[in-house]
Amino acid sequence: MSKVFTHNSTDDVWSGNVLLDSIAGQSIGILIPGSTLTFAQAEYEAGLMAWRLQNAQSLRVTARGWGVKAGQNCMSEAGISPVRVAPNDILTVYPLAVGSSTGKSNVLAWVTTTKGTELFKGLDISNNIARPLVTAVNSQSLGDAFFNSTLQSISVQCQDGCTLDSIQIVDEMGGVVFTAQGNVRGATSAAGKSNEYNLELPRLSIPIGKGWAFKVITVSV
């Protein structure tokens, strides 16, 4: 069984961006409680977007991922770890438009540590300048949000047409503890590996200190 959920969503917020069934106008928990999800394909018009499956009462998130530009979805990237839908579950999205001007990029990142997973964001990042990302909900740095935990994974999505040059994990003194090179995304680029992410780092083990930052370097035209 497959269902389609839609919403005309507001940029730069989770609140209010609840997807509803295209036929019955119901949230996922009301429509198909007890069902097991194994695939999720999310699309946006332009820019970039994260999605999550969350319990509206407990706020517990049981699944999350990336949207792709409309028309670039592929089932090969749509598989998720099986998750059972609870009656109070809702699907919500966090979209961003493209940067405000040429040479400026918007970026999202799912960051997982031993304390949990948070969505990070960076807005209007100028080309070739290392810029720290902060949590999407309360604008905390990596060190503030996850001090005394261990970084386990990072997944980065840049806006359409943007190249992720690299990421940096930086300590309180400004020293680079870890760096990794990124890529482009999308089927239109010969170098693109994924329509969903510019960088995927699933197996990390980096202790996070107070005052640490997560920075990205991007290039867009």
Description:
- With about 220 residues, the protein is mainly β.
- It has two domains: about 5-95, no CATH class; about 105-220, no CATH class.
- Helix content is about 5%, strand content about 45%.
- It is built from two helices and 19 strands.
- Strands 10, 11, 13, 14, 17 and 18 form a six-stranded antiparallel β-sheet that branches. Strands 12-19-15-16 form a four-stranded antiparallel β-sheet, with no helix packed on it.
- A hairpin with a 2-residue loop joins β10 (about 105-115) and β11.
- It is globular.
- It starts with a strand and ends with a strand.
- The model has no long low-confidence stretch (mean pLDDT about 95).
Task: Report a brief summary of the structure.
The chain has about 220 residues and is mainly beta. The protein has helices at about 30, 140-145, and strands at about 5, 20, 35-40, 45, 50-55, 60-65, 70, 80-85, 90-95, 105-115, 115-125, 130, 135, 150-160, 165-170, 175-180, 200, 205, 215-220.
Please describe the structure with a list of short key phrases separated by commas or semicolons.
single chain, 221 residues, mainly beta, 6-stranded antiparallel β-sheet, 4% helix
